[in-house]
Amino acid sequence: MAKKEMEVVKGVDLKRYMGRWYEIASFPSFFQPKNGVNTRATYTLNEDGTVHVLNETFSNGKRDSIEGTAYKADPNSDEAKLKVKFYLPPFLPIIPVVGNYWVLYLDQDYQVALIGEPTRKYLWILCRQTHLDEEIYNELVERAKEEGYDVSKLHKTPQSDPPPESEVVPPDTKGIWWIKSLFGK
């Protein structure tokens, strides 16, 4: 029996969605550093309405990061189905890799988000703060379960308070794990 298409948030105000989000939990991928901590995403609205994406994680005291662009899959739809395109800097010629980013839940204050994609292989719980109230966390897990996700695969991401500064740590620009964890390649 085919799973019903998952429900996606409608009418997201991209301006309010911009800024930094901390990864509270996600489905781990064997490409991602097992010891990756303080993982976060920073979104900035571009003048053309697309979104600049900066993903960062820290492992062994080094910052890994990768940048990309997000845009609405269908400009005429009010559903929060985005495509995220990353250019792979380690490879030449530069190949854009595109993945899906579906907002499955967003609270009214734009403080907590549940992000998935159509294959249900990837799931992220994001929060504006480095820590999320356990009760809210459990509600999001329950919601993901209702949308057909195997929530037993969720792994909490360690976050330190205060979070590390981006600038202090020399960047490791490879960022390959982000690509692979996002797209299961």
Automatic annotation (TrEMBL):
GO CC entries: cytoplasm
Positions of the UniProt region annotated as Disordered: 153-172
Keywords: Lipoprotein
GO BP: lipid metabolic process; response to reactive oxygen species
Presence of the UniProt keyword Lipoprotein in the record: yes
Protein's UniProt keywords contain Lipoprotein: yes
Domain spans labelled Lipocalin/cytosolic fatty-acid binding: 12-159
Coiled-coil region(s): none
InterPro entries: Calycin, Lipocalin_ApoD, Lipocalin_bac, Lipocalin_Blc-like_dom, Lipocalin_CS, Lipocln_cytosolic_FA-bd_dom
Family statement: Belongs to the calycin superfamily. Lipocalin family.
PANTHER family: APOLIPOPROTEIN D
Name this protein carries in UniProt: Outer membrane lipoprotein Blc
